[in-house]
Amino acid sequence: MTGPAADGPEGASVAPPGPAIPLSALLADEELGLRLIAGAEDPAAVAVHWVHTSEMADPFPYLLGGELLLTAGVQLAEPERGARAYAERVVAAGGAALGFGLAPVYDTVPDALVEACAHTRLPLLEVPPRTTFTAVGRAVWRLMGQARHRELRRVTEAQQALASAAARPDPVPAVLHALASRLPGRAVLYAGDGRRYAEAGRALQDGTEQALARLAARVTTGTASAADTVDGAQLTAYALGGTRGLALALATGPREPGDHTVAGVAVVLLSLLTARHQGADEATRTAALVRLLLGAAPEEAAAPLGPAPWTVVHAQGEGPPPALGTPLVDTGDGTVRALLPHGHEVAEHPGWTLGVSAPAAPGDLPAADAQASRALRRARAAHTPLARHRASGLAALVDPAEAAAHSTALLAPLGGAPLTTTLRAWLSLHGSWDRTATALGVHRNTVRQRIARCATLLGTDLDDPDIRMELWFALREG
Q1: Distance (Å, rounded) from C-alpha 153 to C-alpha 159?
Q2: CB of 288 within 8 A of CB of 307?
Q3: pTM
Q4: Coil, strand, or helix at residue 395?
Q5: With 0-12 CB in 10 A as exposed, 13-18 as middle and 19+ as buried, what is 41?
Q6: Per-residue pLDDT at 12
């Protein structure tokens, strides 16, 4: 179960720090002695991402979504009047379940609360007097750690299986077979004309097979990756780098958190194994580099590599670099930077955050590089998977050099990170302490202290909307 962020129903859910655990896992812990008394027919289908304790009459502003909310019922002085509204607010905030601690306030769970949770389908747990809320919290974090360990081991074993398959005499079919086994389903390598280059895994129904072929056709014409759902099957297609028109298409069941990493490893291996034209492409890139070093204009050097206009992409994330459909990629300093010639679309890539520039002529690529960098910062601050350069608005009315100089002067008192990073995240999340703390991985009190320090160093009132607007402009252009 997921829900809105702490700032209200229209906010975006905040990503949890680790894998969710099913409510049934907590119920199975005999030491806790928890008992489900209302609200959930299938505890295994209820996902718990966090634990939060609150005796507030309205917990909505303090929930991020997915919590097991623990309470002793202090706020329910008159359960018959307030239980329904309380349960509805927990559900509206995206709470996963409610844990009610017996003693010292109530000896039994109030009947009105049981009825309210049954009506709203909010899972209600009875927490016995011998079980502390701290013990429940520790159990959740322990189970999350175990789930994360299992996921890492599964991904590692899958990566080893794919690497072993790639070393076999018939590597392409072997890699597809290993992939279809590790991500149970079907793996197909499509050529640019729609032919099946190689395949492995269980057969699909005609409708699903046709949908998979259409998805592969999308990525062979420029899109780096695409996804769809047909008849309960999760369909994904990836363009293979270093090839001309090959695409890997997968049809699986519900995807697990580490599946995109396993698929990414397969994409990299298959790109290397099927790169028949890699030598010619490498020669073309080398010739372009030689021309540039010998004084040729960017337009002349870029011409053999692809048609203009070009797009610059900056990406940050974990696992294999995203398949962007171009061999012109730089993976240094923790940020993937890619050049995409005309006709290449950029889509979201699981596990990665992308910033995309506006299309640019070869001579304007340095400016496009700066655009992609700013777009990536904006995407990370706003916690979105992809952001594109926006040429309209206030920034388009100001000379870039003047904007940069103004930004440097205005933000100089902050002395760089971590204050500027905190200020950028806080402004992008509309002043939410909880969401900023989650995005940065720090305590909310740390966020408060840093923002207060920013206000002191800048000598300004951060509650003033004009000041916030000017600072956001400076952080974007700096």
Answers
A1: 10
A2: no
A3: 0.48
A4: helix
A5: exposed
A6: 40
